[in-house]
Amino acid sequence: MALAACTAPALQDTTPVAKPLPKGLDDTCGAVRYHTLLNQDATNLERILILGQVRVIRPDTILTQDYRPERMNFHVGASGKIIQISCG
After folding, report:
1. pLDDT at position 23
2. 65-83: string of b/e by CB count within 10 Å (b at 16+)?
3. Which residue of 6, 26, 75, 77 lies most exposed, with the fewest beta carbons within 10 A?
4. Can you give the CATH number for the domain in which 38 is found?
């Protein structure tokens, strides 16, 4: 009984992600949680609360070259839709 209190709770959503991160990339920022935003209009980001560092990258955006594994990057295409979510 005492050991049962030390176990981690089971995850609520165990369904596989339709588009996981590309091979070799770690989900250090929790980007997989927001995979449902892919192919949606970037204005949908205004409706959700994301705690932590977030960067929205639009075409021709000038970016810093620092790598921050905890930072979530939302890549927006010319159409205004989110085309990729990555960490760094």
Report:
1. 52
2. eeeeeebbbbbbeeeeebe
3. 6
4. 3.30.10.10
In a domain, 11, yes or no: no
**Cβ–Cβ under 8 Å, residues 40 and 81:** yes
Both tokens assigned to 52: 């932590």
Q: Report how many domains make up the chain.
A: 1
Per residue of the chain (88 residues), give pLDDT as tens. Answer: 555 555 544 444 445 455 554 554 578 998 999 999 999 999 999 999 888 899 999 999 999 889 899 999 999 999 999 999 999 8
- Is 67 a domain residue? yes
Structural domain contains residue 37: yes
Closest CA to 83 of 52, 58, 48, 55: 58
- Domain range for 33 is 21-87
Triad 16, 21, 24: Cα angle to 5°:
125
Query: Which residue do the tokens 């930072």 mark?
Result: 71
